[in-house]
Every structure is written in structure tokens, then in C-alpha cells.
What does this fold into?
Amino acid sequence: MEFTLSPLGDAAIIIELGKMIENNTHENVQHVFSYFDQHSPDWLIECIPAFTTVTLIYDPIKASRVNRDSYPYQIVSEYISETMKTLDKVQSESGRTVLIPVCYGGELGPDLEFVAEHNKLSPEEVISIHSDSEYLVYMIGFAPGFPYIGGMSEKIAAPRISSPRLKIPAGSVGIAGSQTGIYPIETPGGWQLIGQTPLKLFQPERKSPSLLKAGDVIRFKPISYDQFLEEKEKMI
It folds into this structure.
């Protein structure tokens, strides 16, 4: 497994595993993240997976206790380099498949008509294409619990809106370029909104606040407005 190391400030190190967003790189990212998440040295504070990297945040004081004649970054980078030689023998867990119910169009998806017209499709065709695919969660970022999702068909790609909205309701499902995403909390944003899920993607009071995590596979399931209200009521 090829990789490069680089410092991020004085208490973090980036393991870069590729340059392109692709499945092989994603698998390597999950592989490395899973290992360090399950085999944490005393100095390791947190592991953060991204599209092509894994960032390790460490405690410089604890790291320096390993060898007081070396700098913390040198100690950590040498440990990572030696560990990476053995990772091909380690199996990481496969992601879950998560079904996300979505009520498309109407007041919950005000931009569905635009996405359809932009791609010379009917709204029903956009819904069918969007809900007929499997999507991979590459990383969580931008906002708490926000999944960066790959796998959307280019047939329903659409540009961001010209003037971002100041408030997008939590659960809104949007499209920007060739990506689709779900807003986990109310936040400003510029994606084309095509629907909304009644599920809560981010609940800070839970032990695992984010419903989704990197490596998960998502499928969207169309539901009616009445079903949306019923499921929404259960979430309260």
C-alpha cells in the first residue's frame, strides 16, 4: 500500500493514500482508519478519515515519552511507517447498508422540477434514477453528520443554486454537480433540494451522534408525504 506522510501543525499527521476519489483509495482509507481506530497507541487522540487521507491527531507529550531523544513527529511518523508495512494482512470491516426514506418534490423538494428540466427529464424519472442506485459514503464533513456521497448518476447532475439559501431544513436531500447529499442539521447551503428524509442524521446526545459513517452504503426509498409526516412524528 503506497502512502506519504506530512505534518499538520505540531500535533497531527496526514497519511495520504491517493490523489483521486476512487473506490480503491476509499478502501485503503477505510483499511488504515479501521486499524488505527482499533489499535490506538497511548499517544493517539483521534483518527479522521477523508476522501484520500487519514489524519491522526496525537499528544506530543505522550509521544515524546517513547523516545526523549527524538521529536514527537519523528516518533509518530516512524511508528506509522512501520505499522503500514503490516496492514495488508489486516482485514477492515465492511460498511453497513442504510436505507434512507425520502419524500421527493413539493415543499420538501422545491428544486426537483429544475433538476428535471435541466436534464430534460420528468420529475418522476429524476426520482427513479436517484432512488435506483447504491451510494457510498466517502467521508463525514462540512457540517456535523454531513455525508459526502459518491455514486450518483450523471443523468441527474445539476449546478448549485445561484444564491445559497440561508436556512435549509435538517434532512433535506440535495444535488450539487454530480454529487448528492443530505443536510443533517439546519444550515445555509447552495445545493438543489429534491426531497427530505424524516430521519435524524445527527443527534449530539447519542454515543454515536452521526447516523452515517464513512464506508456505509446508502439506498434512498421514495415515500409519500403522509408517510413522511408519520415517520417524522416518530422521531420527536
About this structure: Residues 2-84 form a domain with the Gyrase A; domain 2 fold (CATH 3.30.1360.40).
